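Re: that backbone. Tokens:
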């Protein structure tokens, strides 16, 4: 299966469990890998045969920037659902990094992999 990859998508949202974390938006970094059959687009070179990753990026950013999750786990799951809503997506791996989560660590991340039709 072919993959479409969106790397290091930066967004700001309310994320965290402590009151001080929830006062202001914090940075998160999102990486998405989508398994998709892109053979039609490769062969035709037509936009209509491709997964529109610009539109997908806009959907992800709109949801993330308007969200107020407590856990990056829940945020990663929500991004995965957006990805799998696209009819050409078969599976997605989503990684959400929270750079400010731990002192002395560059980042803390959660990675989830979800497939179309998978029960959760």
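Recovered sequence:
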């Amino acid at each position: 299966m072919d993959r479409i990859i969106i790397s290091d998508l930066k967004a700001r949202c309310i994320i965290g469990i402590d009151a001080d974390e929830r006062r202001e938006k914090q940075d998160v970094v999102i990486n998405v890998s989508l398994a998709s059959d892109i053979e039609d687009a490769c062969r035709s070179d037509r936009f209509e045969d491709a997964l529109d990753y610009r539109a997908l990026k806009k959907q992800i950013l709109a949801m993330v920037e308007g969200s107020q999750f407590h856990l990056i786990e829940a945020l990663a799951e929500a991004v995965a659902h957006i990805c799998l809503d696209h009819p050409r997506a078969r599976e997605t791996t989503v990684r959400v990094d929270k750079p400010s989560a731990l002192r002395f660590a560059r980042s803390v991340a959660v990675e989830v992999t979800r497939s179309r039709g998978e029960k959760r």
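The domain at 2-93 is CATH 3.30.1130.10 (GTP Cyclohydrolase I, domain 2). The beta strands are 2-15, 26-36, 68-69, 89-98, 108-115.
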